[in-house]
Design goal:
By secondary structure, the chain is an alpha/beta fold. The chain folds into 2 domains: 43-274, Alpha-Beta Barrel (TIM Barrel), CATH 3.20.20.10; 281-409, Lyase, Ornithine Decarboxylase, Chain A, domain 1 (Beta Barrel), CATH 2.40.37.10. The chain contains 12 helices and 17 strands. It has helices spanning 10-20, 29-42, 61-69, 79-87, 104-113, 124-131, 167-179, 198-219, 245-261, 276-279, 311-315, 405-409; strands at residues 24-28, 50-54, 73-76, 95-98, 116-119, 137-142, 184-189, 223-227, 269-272, 283-294, 298-302, 321-323, 333-338, 347-354, 362-365, 386-390, 396-400. Strands 1, 10, 11, 12, 13, 14, 15, 16 and 17 form a 9-stranded mixed sheet that branches. The protein has an 8-stranded parallel barrel with strand order 2-3-4-5-6-7-8-9, surrounded by 5 helices. Helix 2 packs parallel to helix 9 and helix 8 runs parallel beside helix 9 (245-261). The longest helix has 22 residues, at 198-219. The structure holds pyridoxal-5'-phosphate. The site of pyridoxal-5'-phosphate has 17 residues, from loops.
Length: 417
């Protein structure tokens, strides 16, 4: 059981709310930095270890800048994400371009920036060559499929996933690239998401190290790096435990020694492209109880909606909720906590036991630091909230303002009506 604490006091958050108004997401810089350092420490044994932060999780340049300062690169999968990385000075091989179904202009931009291009399909070799040229270094994304040859029972059902190359294709793809004169090679996979069991990541490493050994034997390629993707989960529920980076780090190290070092394939750089676990637990959606409605169930209507945090509405994801100042009161009321979309799934919590909520109470929704604001949308003409940064010295900076009605109308030309 991990107690879900807040990084601010009641007085502090009331002050912030008075200044900025709700709703907003607020990120805890100190905790993000400490967490980043822990991850790097767990892989300090690994030569040239790199975490490429998955930009899609929290595409805010101020967050990216913090992570760059901690030594992270950026995992981008679209043109605006590449530009965001560039804006904060993450360029060259600090960028891993792991895209799929990619338009030509995005490959061109990735090449301009000198990013490491990670191809999602064998047909993308010709597409890349035609539009952007073949780079010096190339990576392919592996899909182990129905767990034959190289797969492992512990690794989900990748044959249902749209990503990556099959085992047969990946041998062919590297051979084509080698014949085209490419000299530097990396390899990538991502087969799991929001996983709390560290063994899955160790199994992924085993699978990839075996594949690298096989590719080396067959094609004589020496790999420069392997990227295990993201997917480390976070304890959204208080009864869940966070993943211990040290367990993953040590497990991967053992496998590295057994498979890579023993086969004379060291040094091989280890890379990750985690998003969720990097910022997820250190973001909070702060909202105010606006209405109380008692029909067949009891509802608390708040001023945030699914437009600010899509996960609960979209896939019933649990997000812990704290009523500020009432943490220690008995949780003897049962509420659905709702937003204002005309969609019945716009609920942050369903049948949740909470303390008695009064209008004007500040509610904090936990673990919104990744895939939170980022997944926002404008359905029902809902405007997305601001993002704030709680800095290490306790001060607060607005790192993205809230959308305005003008923003929403920007793509319309009323003069032609
Ligand atoms: C989404 C994604 C990630 C990050 O996943 P998390 O679950 O946030 O760690 C990394 N790599 C790729 C290719 C992704 O699509």
């Amino acid at each position: 059981m991990v107690e879900k604490k807040l990084p601010f006091s009641k007085e502090q958050i009331e002050k912030i709310v008075a200044q900025y108004g709700t709703p907003f997401h607020i990120y805890d810089e100190k905790a993000i930095r400490e967490n980043a350092r822990k991850l790097i420490a767990a892989f300090s044994w690994a030569p040239g270890f790199k975490e490429y932060f998955a930009v899609k999780a929290t595409p805010n340049p101020y967050i990216l800048k913090i992570l760059r300062e901690e030594g992270f690169g950026a995992d981008c999968s679209s043109l605006p994400e590449l530009i965001l990385a560039e804006k904060v000075g993450i360029v060259g091989e600090e960028i891993m371009f792991t895209s799929n179904d990619t338009p030509a202009d995005e490959f061109i931009k990735a090449r301009e920036l000198g990013a490491i291009i990670n191809l999602d399909d064998i047909t993308h070799i010709d597409f890349l060559e035609k539009h952007a040229g073949i780079p010096d270094i190339i990576s392919f994304r592996y899909n182990p499929g129905p767990l034959r040859g190289g797969g492992n029972a512990i690794i989900g059902n990748p044959e249902e996933a749209k990503y990556g190359l099959t085992r047969e294709q990946i041998f062919e793809a590297y051979k084509i690239m080698k014949d085209k004169g490419v000299k530097r090679f990396g390899i990538h996979t991502m087969v799991i998401s929001n996983e709390l069991d560290p063994n899955y990541f160790i199994e992924t490493a085993n699978m990839m190290f075996d594949l690298i050994v096989d590719l080396n034997k067959e094609l004589g390629i020496n790999f420069e790096f392997v990227n295990f993707g993201g997917g480390i989960g976070i304890p959204y529920r208080p009864e869940e435990e966070p993943v211990d980076y040290e367990v993953i780090g040590q497990g991967v190290k053992n496998s590295y020694e057994e498979k890579i070092v023993a086969n004379g394939l060291a040094p091989l750089k280890i890379a990750l492209e985690c998003g969720r676990v990097i910022t997820g637990p250190y973001g909070y959606l702060v909202t105010t109880a606006m209405h109380k409605k008692e029909i067949y169930k009891n509802y608390i209507g708040v001023d945030a909606s699914m437009a600010d945090l899509m996960r609960p509405g979209m896939y019933g994801a649990y997000h812990h909720l704290t009523v500020v100042g009432k943490e220690n009161q008995p949780h003897d009321h049962v509420y659905d906590v709702t937003g204002g979309l005309c969609e019945n799934c716009d609920k942050f919590a369903v049948d949740r036991k909470l303390p008695k909520i009064d209008l004007g109470d500040i509610l904090v929704i936990h673990d919104t630091g990744a895939h939170g604001h980022a997944m926002g949308f404008n359905y029902n003409a809902k405007l997305r909230s601001a993002e704030l940064l709680l800095k290490e010295d306790g001060s607060v900076e607005m790192i993205r303002r809230a959308e305005t009605i003008d923003d929403y109308f920007r793509t319309l030309d009323f003069s032609k009506l």
